[in-house]
Amino acid sequence: MDSLIWTVSTVKDTVANLERFVTRNLAGGVDHLVVFVDDDDAGSLELLSSHPHTTGIAAGPWWGPGRPDALNSRQRIAANAVRAIAAGLGDVAWVFHIDGDEAIQLDARRLASLGPDARAVRLEVLEAVAQWDPSPGSEHLFKRRLAKDDLNELVARGLVDRPRNDHYFNGHVNGKIGVRPAYDVWLGIHRAMDDRRQALPALEAPWLRLLHYATPPGRDFERKWRNLLSSGTRATVRSARTPVADGLRATIAAGEPMGPDALRRVFEETVADDVPSLRALGVLEEIDPCAVQHAPTPYAAAEELESRLLALSSQDKRAFEPERGAAAGRALVDAYPGKPS
């Protein structure tokens, strides 16, 4: 069935959070999730192997000695390995790269109705409000990107320091990309390119959205930042998040957990949202990611998908990096010999 929507992710999280991630995305329009478990957690792999709409890959054996240090490199390579396999299988309509704290919200019927000239789409990001101890009724509140006038109003009220969305959001503001899987299209984290390494135009529409749970509450806040700062992504921490990074980096270097009072103080001083004020200004949206239940289509060739992915374990997966060209990984995919022994 060529209307299938896939996602690919590299995830290191608790089993409970992973289960929420899968549930939200299937409800929001996804048919099948491919998840590279970055820490080879047995519980996460068991969950993914038993779920009818997921394929879980233990990242350690898959990468072997060629595992890149930087998380972004691992994400890009894994995403394009899946994109190339989907192109070879020929029965997948769209592939999106998302993180484990994100949930797609799209209209699958509208996406399926797009003509072949639409080769890429962009999901507009909405960010969950950041609260250490979420108040009742705020679990489904999200910040949307704001126009300059609204941002200036937030500055005037002392809610942000600069009238920019990347100071209003704690996470990224560029959204995420989905592509029609093909050998001549390269899928990046926030962009897509053709085989000449030219950016592909990406369709944007109100029915293409991404919910980003960028700042988890309580102790999960420290766990997420420990994962982030130990994953080779130091250079990607934007200046607005430096106080958070510096505080947690110091505790990681000391090999000790941050005390709850100190951790909460860092949270409140650097990333917490003034939810009552934002709500009064009318700049928040209330979205339940599971309110509309998409009926995901089972993928009949899931075993072959997993087999094709595992067959790449012994290969040089740098062929899927952008500097090799979008079509560089085709030879690896075309050489698929069948199920590995």
Molecular structure report:
The chain is an alpha/beta fold and 341 residues long. It has a domain at 4-130 and 172-215 and 287-334: Alpha-Beta Complex (Spore Coat Polysaccharide Biosynthesis Protein SpsA, Chain A). It contains 13 helices and 12 strands. The strands form 2 sheets. Strands 1, 2, 3, 4, 5, 6, 7, 8, 11 and 12 form a 10-stranded mixed beta sheet that branches. Strands 9-10 form a two-stranded antiparallel ribbon. β2 (32-37), α2 and β3 form a beta-alpha-beta unit. α8 crosses α9 (242-254) and α9 (242-254) runs antiparallel to α10 (260-270). The longest helix has 19 residues, at 71-89. The two termini are 29 Å apart.
Task: Briefly characterize the structure.
With 341 residues, this protein is α/β, with parallel strands linked by helices. The chain is built from 13 helices and 12 strands.
Helix/strand order: EHEHEHHEEHEEHHEEEEHHHHEHH
Helix-residue proportion: 25-40%
Query: If helices are DSSP runs of H or I spanning 4 or more residues, what is the number of helices?
Result: 13
Q: Report the CATH C-level class of the domain at 4-130 and 172-215 and 287-334.
A: Alpha Beta
Taken from the alpha-carbon principal axes, the silhouette is globular
CATH topology of the domain at 4-130 and 172-215 and 287-334: Spore Coat Polysaccharide Biosynthesis Protein SpsA, Chain A
Secondary-structure-based class equals: alpha/beta
The CATH architecture of the domain at 4-130 and 172-215 and 287-334 would be Alpha-Beta Complex
- What is the radius of gyration? 20 Å
Strand tally is: 12
Give the uncertain stretches in residue-range form.
Answer: 234-238
Assembly annotation: single chain
Strand content: 15-25%
Q: What's the N-to-C terminus distance? A: 29 Å
Mind summarizing the main beta sheet?
Answer: 10 strands, mixed
Question: What would the average pLDDT be, to the nearest integer?
Answer: 89
